[in-house]
């Protein structure tokens, strides 16, 4: 299984939802604290191809997007495959 990373910031309800969804899948992931103005946020921006919002989720080097993207993949039944599970 590829390494799963999620860039978040404190107080972000979308980040909380995305983390909860990943937790519900019982997959190991690394949460990276990335408030505005931090090197971690800049890294998320660069890795995502210029997306400025959090959360940003990556499986290996592939960007899955943010909370809405994860939820859409889940509704379509495609999230497990995107995460490399199931």
From TrEMBL:
Glutaredoxin domain location: 4-62
Q: Which Pfam families does the UniProt record give?
A: Glutaredoxin
Gene Ontology process terms (BP): cell redox homeostasis; cellular response to oxidative stress
- TM region(s), chain numbering: none
Keywords in alphabetical order: Cytoplasm, Disulfide bond, Electron transport, Redox-active center, Transport
**Gene Ontology terms for molecular function:** glutathione disulfide oxidoreductase activity
Annotated signal peptide? none
Question: PANTHER family in the record, alphabetically?
Answer: GLUTAREDOXIN 2 (PTHR45694), GLUTAREDOXIN-1-RELATED (PTHR45694:SF18)
Name the UniProt record assigns to this protein = Glutaredoxin
Q: Which organism is it from?
A: Acetobacter indonesiensis
């Amino acid at each position: 299984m590829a390494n799963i990373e999620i860039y978040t910031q404190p107080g972000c309800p979308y980040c909380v939802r995305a983390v909860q969804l990943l937790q519900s899948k019982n997959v190991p992931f690394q949460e990276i604290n990335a408030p505005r103005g931090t090197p971690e946020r800049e890294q998320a921006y660069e890795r995502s191809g210029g997306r400025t919002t959090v959360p940003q989720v990556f499986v290996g080097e592939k960007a899955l997007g943010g909370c809405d993207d994860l939820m859409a993949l889940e509704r379509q039944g495609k999230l497990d495959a995107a995460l490399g599970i199931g």
